[in-house]
Amino acid sequence: MTTFGAVLRRGRGWLPLIGAAALLGNLTVLALPAVLGRAVDAISPTAHLDPSGWVLVACGLIALGILCDVVEVIAGTACVAGTAAWLRHGLVARVLAAGPRGVSQFDTGDLVSRVSSNAVDAVRAGPATLTAVTAAVPPIGSLVLLLLISPWLAAAFLGGVLLVVAVLWLFARRTAEISLAYQETQGRIAATLTEALAGLRTIAAAGTAQREEERILRLLPELHARGLRTWQLLARSGAQAAVVGPLVLIAVLAVGGIELVDHRITAGEYFAAAQYAVIGAGLGSLTSVLGQLARARAGIARVAEVSAALPVAYGALSLPVGPGRLVFDEVTVRAGDELLLDRIHLDLPGGAAVAVVGSSGAGKSVLAAVAGRLQDPDSGQVRLDGVPLGALSHAALRQAVGCAFERPALVGSTVGDAIGVGVVPTDQLLASARATHVHEFVSRMPDGYRTPLAEAPLSGGEAQRLGLARAWAAERLLILDDATSSLDTATERQITETLMGDHHRRTRLIITHRAATAARADLVIWLDHGRVRAVGHHDDLWRDAAYRKAFG
């Protein structure tokens, strides 16, 4: 799980360098007033000393301070970039490992917001923490050095610095909550926008663009209010620090002036004390660092919720030799209080073409998801050739079971990748393409299977055929969840003939709304409100008027 400590540990390769550079830079800041003070004393009429040595040391300290700043910036950038890559890789891997159900509590846009922008905020935790910690060195060092010059100067300095620290503490407490609320509102806006982008054609056809625009932008006033509150808090804290900071300088200068008049300190020591007071007053500028740290903590809280998603657990077993016998043993699936599947018990013969029919909401797609282990049942068990799906290794499961969907998500850089998932076209890929009639339109493309997927002009039916070709290589169970609904009649008939003429090589579970497809199947499962209403041949079931009504 992603925690604050985990993010810090990931940056351990760079954080020591950042810390060393920041510490050395702060030590040069501390040393410079003392060196300049010695130079001031050296040029006094009574000293008769050459100040050039101290001036050279001061120049060296300034150069060293600049070098430390450069190293800190370069190392900080590298640390943030490396940690961001690690965190995003881990989050994407966790999302994919958790599957659809594991991340179902997140809207798509909100999930993207967490993995992208919130992850960037989160990985700044390491450099921001070091900056905040090392920022304590100059005021503490200033206090010690002022104590060596004069206890009264140290007391004046301490009183003023405590006021600055109080301002920073209040700012840090308030800004953490505001930062988290701001990020959450951003996520909700991203979720609404993503939803609208997915339905652009529907919005255009319905003429509801204005209404959708208002729905998306409805949260902007809330985002504006949270952002305004953040800036108001920053401005208020900055103003408080701007008032309190000079008080440190005034107090030290006043006390130092009295000490100088009484000849208890030298002019150089008075100059150094003034510089240390400026250092103490500069603590107020830490509000930006503390704000960054608060955003990092808020970002970590949001990405931690994603990394807490439980990955799908796989076993280590392989399938024995078998025909693809599929058994649902008292399978129940719930969504809250709603029963999606209610104690389903089925024993489907291996090698059969099994159609699943039912009216909308009957549970057909849920049954398909459970059969393909895209979703685990809340109770009960699914077995393939006697082996529970949960006991199979990931490789064995995906080699044996293939799934094609009504709206396939095509991934990969080329058309061939969309079928072979990243493999160069092979005999198996071409066989799948020919069986699903993909080869007919891909071969007409200028670059064939190497055509960039983003540039391929695909119709809805052609996209469905690509998704079907991707699943076609399944060795034991092929699941089609309404995967031919966008095909023209002729192409669907050809693919159906190929499906039904599979010569009992594997079991085919076909979710369909078409009576013609059900009529060609070896067996039909009729679902009604999450329960099996009947199992039999299409011709026998057709006598029931309620069965005929399921096809609309």
Keywords:
single chain, 552 residues, alpha/beta, 6-stranded mixed β-sheet, 4-stranded antiparallel β-sheet, 22 helices, 61% helix, elongated
Reconstruct the topology from this structure.
Elements: H1 4-10, H2 15-42, H3 52-102, H4 108-122, H5 125-134, H6 137-149, H7 151-198, H8 200-206, H9 209-217, H10 220-261, H11 267-281, H12 287-307, E1 326-335, E2 338-348, E3 353-357, H13 364-371, E4 379-384, E5 387-388, H14 394-400, E6 401-405, H15 415-420, H16 427-435, H17 439-442, H18 460-471, E7 477-481, H19 489-500, E8 507-511, H20 515-520, E9 523-528, E10 531-536, H21 538-541, H22 545-549
Parallel strand pairs: 3-8, 3-9, 6-7, 7-8
Antiparallel strand pairs: 1-2, 1-4, 4-5, 9-10
Nutshell version of this structure?
This protein has 552 residues and is an alpha/beta fold.
General description of the model:
- With 552 residues, the chain is an alpha/beta fold.
- Helices cover 61% and strands 11% of the residues.
- The protein contains 22 helices and 10 strands.
- It has helices at residues 4-10, 15-42, 52-102, 108-122, 125-134, 137-149, 151-198, 200-206, 209-217, 220-261, 267-281, 287-307, 364-371, 394-400, 415-420, 427-435, 439-442, 460-471, 489-500, 515-520, 538-541, 545-549; strands at residues 326-335, 338-348, 353-357, 379-384, 387-388, 401-405, 477-481, 507-511, 523-528, 531-536.
- The strands form 2 sheets. Strands 6-7-8-3-9-10 form a 6-stranded mixed sheet, sandwiched between helices.
- Helix 2 runs antiparallel to helix 3 (52-102), helix 5 (125-134) packs antiparallel against helix 12 and helix 7 (151-198) crosses helix 12.
- The protein is elongated, with a radius of gyration of 35 Å.
- The chain starts with a helix and ends with a helix.
- The relative contact order is 0.09.
- The mean pLDDT is 83.
